[in-house]
Design goal:
This protein is an alpha+beta fold and 169 residues long. About 9% of the residues have low confidence.
Protein backbone atom coordinates (compact mmCIF):
# COMPACT_ATOMS: atom_id res chain seq x y z
CA UNK A 1 0.00 0.00 0.00
CA UNK A 2 2.88 2.36 0.82
CA UNK A 3 4.40 1.71 -2.61
CA UNK A 4 1.10 2.63 -4.27
CA UNK A 5 0.90 5.91 -2.35
CA UNK A 6 4.51 6.72 -3.21
CA UNK A 7 3.93 5.97 -6.92
CA UNK A 8 0.76 8.10 -6.98
CA UNK A 9 2.60 10.94 -5.24
CA UNK A 10 5.43 10.79 -7.78
CA UNK A 11 2.93 10.79 -10.66
CA UNK A 12 1.11 13.79 -9.21
CA UNK A 13 4.34 15.74 -8.71
CA UNK A 14 5.48 14.87 -12.23
CA UNK A 15 2.20 16.01 -13.78
CA UNK A 16 2.36 19.27 -11.81
CA UNK A 17 5.89 19.87 -13.07
CA UNK A 18 4.82 19.29 -16.70
CA UNK A 19 1.83 21.60 -16.26
CA UNK A 20 4.03 24.34 -14.78
CA UNK A 21 6.50 23.95 -17.66
CA UNK A 22 3.68 24.23 -20.23
CA UNK A 23 2.25 27.34 -18.51
CA UNK A 24 5.68 28.96 -18.64
CA UNK A 25 5.95 28.14 -22.36
CA UNK A 26 2.56 29.75 -23.06
CA UNK A 27 3.49 32.94 -21.23
CA UNK A 28 6.83 33.30 -22.96
CA UNK A 29 6.63 35.04 -26.31
CA UNK A 30 9.30 35.62 -28.86
CA UNK A 31 8.92 39.33 -29.51
CA UNK A 32 11.52 39.10 -32.27
CA UNK A 33 9.00 37.55 -34.67
CA UNK A 34 7.52 40.10 -37.01
CA UNK A 35 5.00 39.93 -39.82
CA UNK A 36 7.95 39.53 -42.23
CA UNK A 37 8.83 36.24 -40.52
CA UNK A 38 5.39 35.01 -41.58
CA UNK A 39 5.93 36.18 -45.19
CA UNK A 40 3.29 38.89 -44.78
CA UNK A 41 0.58 36.40 -43.79
CA UNK A 42 -1.35 38.49 -41.27
CA UNK A 43 -3.76 35.66 -40.45
CA UNK A 44 -0.94 33.24 -39.58
CA UNK A 45 0.87 35.98 -37.64
CA UNK A 46 -2.21 36.83 -35.53
CA UNK A 47 -3.08 33.16 -35.07
CA UNK A 48 0.44 32.30 -33.87
CA UNK A 49 1.28 35.36 -31.80
CA UNK A 50 -2.11 36.13 -30.28
CA UNK A 51 -4.90 33.61 -30.80
CA UNK A 52 -2.89 30.48 -29.97
CA UNK A 53 -1.98 32.20 -26.70
CA UNK A 54 -5.27 33.90 -25.91
CA UNK A 55 -5.42 32.44 -22.39
CA UNK A 56 -2.38 34.56 -21.58
CA UNK A 57 -4.26 37.78 -22.38
CA UNK A 58 -7.53 37.02 -20.62
CA UNK A 59 -7.81 39.10 -17.46
CA UNK A 60 -4.97 41.43 -18.51
CA UNK A 61 -5.05 44.96 -19.83
CA UNK A 62 -5.38 45.23 -23.60
CA UNK A 63 -2.02 47.02 -23.50
CA UNK A 64 -0.29 43.64 -22.95
CA UNK A 65 -1.85 42.28 -26.14
CA UNK A 66 -1.04 45.48 -28.06
CA UNK A 67 2.61 45.26 -27.04
CA UNK A 68 2.86 41.65 -28.19
CA UNK A 69 0.89 42.32 -31.38
CA UNK A 70 3.53 44.63 -32.81
CA UNK A 71 1.25 45.32 -35.78
CA UNK A 72 -0.43 48.57 -36.74
CA UNK A 73 -4.18 48.58 -36.15
CA UNK A 74 -5.99 50.38 -38.95
CA UNK A 75 -9.30 51.07 -37.25
CA UNK A 76 -11.77 49.80 -34.70
CA UNK A 77 -15.50 49.32 -34.62
CA UNK A 78 -18.14 47.88 -32.34
CA UNK A 79 -21.74 46.72 -32.32
CA UNK A 80 -23.94 47.59 -29.33
CA UNK A 81 -25.35 44.73 -27.29
CA UNK A 82 -28.77 43.75 -28.59
CA UNK A 83 -30.35 43.90 -25.12
CA UNK A 84 -28.73 47.23 -24.10
CA UNK A 85 -27.49 49.57 -26.82
CA UNK A 86 -25.64 51.72 -24.28
CA UNK A 87 -22.93 49.09 -23.89
CA UNK A 88 -20.89 46.76 -26.04
CA UNK A 89 -19.23 43.55 -24.97
CA UNK A 90 -16.68 43.43 -27.77
CA UNK A 91 -14.73 45.51 -30.26
CA UNK A 92 -13.31 44.75 -33.69
CA UNK A 93 -9.75 45.79 -34.46
CA UNK A 94 -9.11 45.91 -38.18
CA UNK A 95 -5.80 45.79 -40.01
CA UNK A 96 -7.12 46.60 -43.49
CA UNK A 97 -9.22 49.44 -44.82
CA UNK A 98 -12.57 48.64 -46.43
CA UNK A 99 -11.31 48.37 -50.02
CA UNK A 100 -8.34 46.17 -49.01
CA UNK A 101 -10.71 43.92 -47.06
CA UNK A 102 -13.09 43.51 -50.02
CA UNK A 103 -10.21 42.80 -52.44
CA UNK A 104 -8.86 40.10 -50.13
CA UNK A 105 -12.28 38.49 -49.82
CA UNK A 106 -12.82 38.54 -53.58
CA UNK A 107 -9.45 36.80 -54.06
CA UNK A 108 -10.50 34.13 -51.56
CA UNK A 109 -8.16 35.42 -48.85
CA UNK A 110 -9.30 35.99 -45.29
CA UNK A 111 -8.71 39.50 -43.93
CA UNK A 112 -8.02 39.49 -40.22
CA UNK A 113 -10.13 41.37 -37.74
CA UNK A 114 -9.22 40.80 -34.13
CA UNK A 115 -12.33 40.53 -31.96
CA UNK A 116 -11.80 41.36 -28.30
CA UNK A 117 -14.51 40.59 -25.77
CA UNK A 118 -14.16 42.84 -22.75
CA UNK A 119 -14.28 41.57 -19.20
CA UNK A 120 -16.52 44.54 -18.40
CA UNK A 121 -18.66 45.90 -21.25
CA UNK A 122 -17.68 49.32 -22.60
CA UNK A 123 -20.04 52.27 -22.82
CA UNK A 124 -20.97 53.03 -26.42
CA UNK A 125 -21.12 56.78 -25.79
CA UNK A 126 -17.40 56.72 -24.90
CA UNK A 127 -16.63 54.78 -28.08
CA UNK A 128 -18.80 57.14 -30.13
CA UNK A 129 -16.73 60.07 -28.84
CA UNK A 130 -13.61 58.32 -30.09
CA UNK A 131 -15.20 57.66 -33.49
CA UNK A 132 -16.71 61.16 -33.92
CA UNK A 133 -13.31 62.70 -34.64
CA UNK A 134 -14.28 63.64 -38.20
CA UNK A 135 -10.73 63.59 -39.53
CA UNK A 136 -9.93 60.10 -38.28
CA UNK A 137 -13.33 58.41 -37.74
CA UNK A 138 -12.62 54.86 -36.56
CA UNK A 139 -8.97 54.99 -37.58
CA UNK A 140 -6.46 54.08 -34.90
CA UNK A 141 -4.94 57.07 -33.08
CA UNK A 142 -2.93 57.59 -29.91
CA UNK A 143 -6.14 58.78 -28.20
CA UNK A 144 -7.90 55.53 -29.06
CA UNK A 145 -4.88 53.48 -28.03
CA UNK A 146 -4.79 55.30 -24.67
CA UNK A 147 -8.46 54.45 -24.08
CA UNK A 148 -8.35 50.79 -25.11
CA UNK A 149 -5.02 49.87 -23.49
CA UNK A 150 -6.61 50.25 -20.04
CA UNK A 151 -9.52 47.89 -20.79
CA UNK A 152 -9.42 44.34 -19.47
CA UNK A 153 -9.56 41.49 -21.99
CA UNK A 154 -12.26 38.86 -21.49
CA UNK A 155 -11.56 36.84 -24.63
CA UNK A 156 -9.81 37.13 -27.98
CA UNK A 157 -10.90 35.81 -31.35
CA UNK A 158 -11.13 36.72 -35.01
CA UNK A 159 -13.91 37.28 -37.49
CA UNK A 160 -14.92 34.28 -39.54
CA UNK A 161 -15.84 34.96 -43.13
CA UNK A 162 -17.84 32.79 -45.48
CA UNK A 163 -15.66 33.25 -48.55
CA UNK A 164 -18.37 31.90 -50.87
CA UNK A 165 -20.28 35.14 -50.31
CA UNK A 166 -17.42 37.26 -51.67
CA UNK A 167 -15.94 35.41 -54.63
CA UNK A 168 -16.06 37.20 -57.99
CA UNK A 169 -18.81 35.84 -60.17
Amino acid sequence: MKKLIIILSILQLTSCAFKKENVLKVKKIDKKHTLNDFKGDTLLYIQTKILDRKEYYIGKKFEVLLNDLNLQIGSFSYIPNHNNIKITSYSYFEFYDYSQRIKKLEKGEIPVNLVVTWQTPLYTDELDKLIIDRTKRGEWTTQKKAYFKEQIVGDVGKTNYNLENYKNK
